[in-house]
Amino acid sequence: MTVHNSRTTCSCHLCRKQLCNSSDESESYSNLKKNPTMNSSKPEKRAQVCEFCQVILQNLPYGIIICNHYGEIIFANQLAAFMLRRKQLMGEKLPEIMEDISGFSKIWHDLLAGSPKTPTLPFSVKRDDPGAESEPSSLSIQIDRLAKKKGLEELEIIALIEDLSPTETLDAADRQYTSSLESLVDEKNKELEFIQQRLIQSEKKSAMIETAGAVAHELRQPLTTVIGTIELLNSESTWNREPLLSKRLDTIHKQCLRMADTIKYMEQLVEYKTRPYVNGRMILDLKESSGRE
What is the fold of 197-289? Predict the structure, then answer.
């Protein structure tokens, strides 16, 4: 696979070109040319497939595996792992995975020996999908050089795995991926519902606080008038002749002052805290919910 770009080169196994305009990749490729140890057989020191090519390979309708001449896998898309019934392929060796497949060892050694072309090898893999039939999946694999270079140490190999019965195997893959996606969506929906419920509760509490403040504002003026009138009447000398009436006015005055204090709390509500009430009910705790000391 070759992609042309006239700007700079990068360290991608496939394109060897600057595709994502990353200075890190171009620097990595320069270091690769300057430092011979980076061209050794150790895969952890070799350049990797760039993000652009990974996106392409992950979405191809084929199983794609890239490995070095030792067979160590340095890239594999999800479909390849699914077809070979593996959770993941990175770090494994392709010849070991295919050791039970008749004929693979021969075409592998032929490729390493310099064979210009290797045949497509059909093989089968037992299915583990509970919704699929008992017959194994029919697949084929073809291996080829990814790039021709000076030495065997730098040889990279690409394996292309194709489903010979796509309506069955790809349907199984679709079922698996769809199931995972549905589970993820359900989980996120539950999280979203929980957040929405908390938001609704927060809005309700905010509305209650605003309502309490508005009610307190409306009650303050008439209550102030009542308190002032009682104080005025209680100060008249005429009430000295009626001690019982004066005592009752004192009681009304005290209760009005108590109501005024409650209104002050309502006007200064900053949060929503409750306290136990009768029959297991919870009511607003004015003192704890207000900003007053």
Answer: Helix Hairpins (1.10.287)
Pick from 20-34, 98-112, 140-154 the range whose average pLDDT is largest: 98-112
Q: Tell me how crowded residue 78 is: count the other CB atoms within 10 A of its CB.
A: 16
In angstroms, rounded to a whole number, what is the distance separating the alpha carbons of residues 186 and 128? 25
Tokens of 28: 């990595």
Residue 227 contacts residue 277 (beta carbons within 8 Å): no
> Which element (helix H / strand E) includes 68?
strand 63-68
How far CA 76 is from CA of 63, 212, 270, in Å, comes to 8, 63, 57
Please list the helix, strand and coil fractions of the chain in percent, rounded to the nearest 5, in that order.
55, 15, 30
**What is the C-alpha to C-alpha distance for residues 123 and 136, in angstroms, rounded to an integer?**
10
Cα angle, residue 159 at apex, residues 155 and 165 outer, rounded to 5°: 170
The fold adopted by the segment(s) 23-179 is Beta-Lactamase (3.30.450)
The confidence score (pLDDT) of residue 172 equals 66
**Two tokens at 164?**
């010979």
User: Which uninterrupted H or E stretch holds 94?
Assistant: helix 94-97
Q: Band the pLDDT of 94: cuts 50, 70, 90.
A: very high
Helix (H) or strand (E) holding 121: strand 121-125
d(CA 41, CA 153): 6
| CB burial string 47-70: b at 16+ within 10 A, e below | bbbbebbbebbeeeeebbbbbbbe
Domain positions in the chain are 23-179, 197-289
Coil, strand or helix at 106: helix
Residue whose structure tokens are 């006007």 = 267
